[in-house]
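Section 3.1: Structural characterization of target chains.
Under the original work plan, the team committed to producing a structural model for every single-chain target entering the pipeline before any wet-lab resources were allocated. The record below documents one such target. The sequence was received from the expression subgroup and is listed exactly as submitted; it comprises 344 residues.
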Amino acid sequence: MRMAEGKASGDAIAYGRLAKEYAELLPLTEAIRTYRKVQSELAEAEAMMTDSSLDPELRAMAGEEYYALRESLSTRERAVRLMLLPKDEADERNAILEVRAGIGGEEAALFAAALFRLYERYTCLHGWRFEVLELNGTGIGGVKEAIAGVSGRAVFARLKFESGVHRVQRVPVTEASGRIHTSTATVAVLPEAAEVDVQIDEKDLRLETFRSQGAGGQHVNTTDSAVRITHIPTGIAVACQEEKSQHKNRAKVMKILRARLYEAERQRQAVERAASRRHQVGSGDRSERIRTYNFPRGRVTDHRAGLSLYKIDQVMDGTALDEIIEALIAGDEAARLAAVERGQ
């Protein structure tokens, strides 16, 4: 009986894997089928266009169709080539989103809080789930550090482009003279890792517990429910005090730690691949400024895409963020396609 149950379970897993592979290949096969159909129609139009026995008007119509089909064929071919590009295995994963105040004191903390709200709204617009894992606030509404888990379909594929340094130019609410200040916040987006992706040995962990504290330093819990775990081999440390339960805080810490270790391994492998082909296609260096939010001019500029939008309010409420992300996705696809064509 147990053997039968085990076989049934194995069959179900195999079926699920094949069904997923079929679903991924179906758009590609449809794209290839369409490409071949256009290719056949193009050949027919060319034959009619050059057939001297046909009526001149009919040949002219065939000529117009030929040039339209030739343009369509080029578009279809590019679509197929894009589908054949190697995919980032992490694209379909959920993500751990980390926002931290950078240079600029309290104004940087306020900007970090605004970015965190932006991503929460953006998540809602996409029908994803946004779960606050850690929130280290300040006394006037800013955040020193905020971490959330974002779950849904292809979350990492879109949010990964948000990693980097975000710069803001505006008049702080605390500025009496009306001078424009420049501050920064950093965003890190990590693919969420499952236990099977990252094996963590308990003996490599150092667990510390302490009492939760509020934004102003006051104790908000009389028990040692807050948790800090350090992964000794890498020195990566994660703390959480969001929950009143030590058990729940530990679970959230392990979720974040697992994601950071998984990302560190991804980066290590990416560097190795880049070194082997003598071409660094992208280091993911978070010290680079990726975007500037200029409030006096109502402008958001993404320096990677070379794109400026004069709709800062719509970007900050999440409704226009996709315009930037779509441009970044298109640029990434073009760069990867060009690398393949160069044989790199």
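Residues 2-49 form the longest helix (48 residues).
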